[in-house]
Write a structure and sequence with these properties.
The protein is mainly α and about 260 residues long. The protein starts with a helix and ends with a helix.
Length: about 260
């Protein structure tokens, strides 16, 4: 494939879908508020309410609950942004836009990449804005740690955007999408170690947290933020395992999303 064919068959349609989703999302302020504001309010209210009663069991690292919940809230912002941005997939099908894309002479994987990259851009951007609050609660990151945090954010954003696409693609109503979010995605986040550590959970909850792929994404975020601080990262999966599972989850979600487009198309 020569350079012109590569541009017309892949780069141009991917860039067009990416730009359309980013512009559309930014023009709808309610989605921006919902994706960024809801996790921040959740973090402030729950964190402030539990900050004097929270204690990690089996760990020498004692911290304020606002600080403990901060890495998980970053992941929650990524999750909410991925969900809200993928609602456009259902709307595009209802308005007839997606049917026009499906009959265009482009590969089906182009649709997945364009939508996922658009969602990833939005999720990454909003989570970076929230990261600016880290110094206000005592989290000080070196430049190497900042680079690790941003890298982990990109991987998590790609994975959750792929998951959002996989859920949204077969659906015909936004109500059904919100139902899945409430029954599946929010509990997935709650059981990721973002809200409470696995060390103090009951047996069956700890087991669910172990098999939850988002647990390893939150753990990777903690490792990146507290680079080299053995106490702060005690009791969670190792950085190698956390990053490997998070990358594997990202690849699997994008592959399954691509297959779902081919199957339905």
């Amino acid at each position: 494939m020569n350079q012109r064919n590569l541009y017309s068959a892949w780069l141009l349609p991917i860039a067009s879908l990416w730009r359309r989703d980013v512009v559309r999302f930014l023009r709808q302020r309610s989605r921006i508020v919902g994706a960024l504001g809801t996790p921040i309010v959740f973090w402030l209210l729950i964190g402030s309410g539990m900050r004097h009663s929270f204690k990690m069991t089996g760990s020498a690292f004692q911290t304020d609950y606002l600080e403990y919940a901060f890495p998980g809230t970053v992941v929650l912002i990524v999750l909410f942004t991925a969900i809200f941005s993928m609602i456009s997939l259902i709307e595009d099908r209802r308005e007839g836009f997606m049917q026009g894309v499906l009959v265009a002479p482009v590969g089906r994987s182009v649709i997945v990449l364009g939508k996922v990259l658009g969602s990833t851009t939005l999720a990454f951007g909003q989570s970076v804005l929230f990261l600016l609050l880290a110094p206000t609660i005592g989290i000080s990151m070196a430049w190497g740690s900042v680079g690790a945090v941003l890298s982990v954010l990109i991987i998590i954003s790609l994975g959750l955007s792929g998951l959002g696409f996989l859920i949204a693609w077969p659906m015909d109503s936004t109500q059904g999408f919100h139902a899945v979010m409430n029954l599946f995605l929010v509990p997935m986040w709650l059981l990721s170690g973002a809200f409470f550590p696995a060390s103090g959970a009951s047996g069956w909850v700890g087991w669910l947290m172990t098999i939850n792929p988002l647990t390893y994404g939150v753990a990777a975020m903690r490792h990146a933020m507290y680079w080299g601080d053995g106490l702060a990262i005690s009791g969670i999966p190792s950085p190698e395992v956390s990053v490997a599972v998070t990358i594997g989850f990202m690849i699997l979600m994008i592959m399954l999303a691509s297959r779902s487009v081919v199957r339905r198309g």
